[in-house]
Amino acid sequence: MNLIPLPAFQDNDLWMLHDGRRALVVDPGDAQPVLACLQRDGLQLEAILVTHHHPDHIGGVEALREATGAVVYGPARERVPQPQIRLADGDAVTVLGLRFDVLDVPGHTAGHIAYYCAAMDGAPLLFCGDTLFSSGGCGRLFEGTPAQMVSSLDKLATLPGATRVCCTHEYKLSNLKFARAVEPHNAELIHYLQRCEELHAQHLPTLPSTIEQEKRINPFLRTRQSGVAQAARAHDSATQQDDVAVFATLRQWKNEFK
Ligand code: ZN
Ligand code: FE
Fold this sequence. Notes:
By secondary structure, this protein is of the alpha/beta class. The chain has nine helices and 14 strands. The chain binds zinc ion and fe (iii) ion. Fe (iii) ion binds near residues 130, 168 and 169.
């Protein structure tokens, strides 16, 4: 299987998965880069997986469906271009011979879903849209509460450590700089930031990350670490002791972080 991020807009990655003949694409906000890739590699698009309703994730759905006849899968509780097969937590779909389990991960939007494949070429794979960002970030709370996002991130954190995390935006360095502000003494984070800066300087992609890696460096998955909670309280002294309050402070802090 080939797993390819197709750059779109400013900082989106449209993930394409193909076996040399048949392909699927996740969150095609723009049809153009997908059509170009299909044509160049002689691929047939079989399915479009949508995680949530934002325009930068669904903008290309209609055009791709028209051009290829691909089947569209999407969140049951959100408005995305019809017809689509509506999915919610506990559902499973099989595309390109791979089984994807559907997880409800509300927070960024109210009906956001993620697609988890337990074995793709021997390792698990996650398409998580705008829920978790590698590295060191998470989606903004447009429609959900901090408590919802914490429980969604917890759900993702229980997936196997080797799970490759395919998210939609690569704000990598800015996320990592925020993570460093939260945990200046996290040696693994500092080391990883250096490596990413090197890759970035050579214009090389740094995706995908893994669940294991994110658990070590992503402050939004580390709200129960005492150092992270302390940093949140140092930033906003009104922060309560619980992990949802710590998360809320981090999210607010990140919104203002430059
Ligand atoms: Zn979004
Ligand atoms: Fe997005």
